[in-house]
Design goal:
Elements (H helix, E strand, L loop, with lengths): L1 E14 L2 E6 L2 E7 L6 H13 L3 E2 L5 E3 L1 H4 L2 E6 L21 H18 L3 E3 L6 E16 L5
Parallel strand pairs: 3-6, 6-7
Antiparallel strand pairs: 1-2, 1-3, 1-8, 4-5
Subcellular location: Cytoplasm
Subunit structure: Homodimer.
Catalytic activity: a D-aminoacyl-tRNA + H2O = a tRNA + a D-alpha-amino acid + H(+); glycyl-tRNA(Ala) + H2O = tRNA(Ala) + glycine + H(+)
Length: 149
């Protein structure tokens, strides 16, 4: 499972002109699900997202997590994160989960996130989404939890 996290001042997702999720300050997570991912994989990634120290403390050092700051979490499914881009000029998606499995684990991830943190907002799985954000820093990290871990 892969998660691209960005520290944001604000972010929102729209589908067909309708806002499906938005946050004011916190973390935008673009989430990619791979073959072999499980609830255990999702749980590990969620805890890493919530505890990853990417927010500044009083001294300006990245010592605070989303849990520490209480900021929002906006979770957006993005299957292109799991693309194989090592060869050629066209991405391959053979390592990605099936749409049904991807949606199941995305929904599981969001449900778990809502049990551990608030506020949590989302995009809409499989939709053509427009994501707007103001990256703060910019601060962006790729988090990966291997399926077999």
């Amino acid at each position: 499972m892969k998660g691209l996290i960005q520290r944001v001042q604000h972010a929102r997702v729209t589908v067909d002109g309708e806002i499906t999720g938005q946050i004011e300050g916190g973390t935008l997570l673009l989430l990619g699900v791979e073959k072999g991912d499980s609830e255990a994989t999702a749980d590990k990634l969620l805890q890493k997202v919530l505890k990853y120290r990417m927010f500044a403390d009083d001294e300006g050092r990245m010592n605070l997590s989303l849990n520490d700051t209480g900021g929002g979490l906006l979770v957006v499914s993005q299957f292109t994160l799991v693309a194989d881009t090592r060869k050629g000029l066209r991405p391959g998606f053979s390592t990605g989960a099936t749409p049904a499995e991807g949606e199941r684990l995305y929904d599981y991830f969001v449900d778990q996130a809502r049990q551990w943190h608030a506020p949590v907002a989302t995009g809409r799985f499989g939709a053509d989404m427009k994501v707007e954000l103001l990256n703060d820093g910019p601060v962006t990290f790729m988090l990966e939890i291997p399926p077999a871990e």
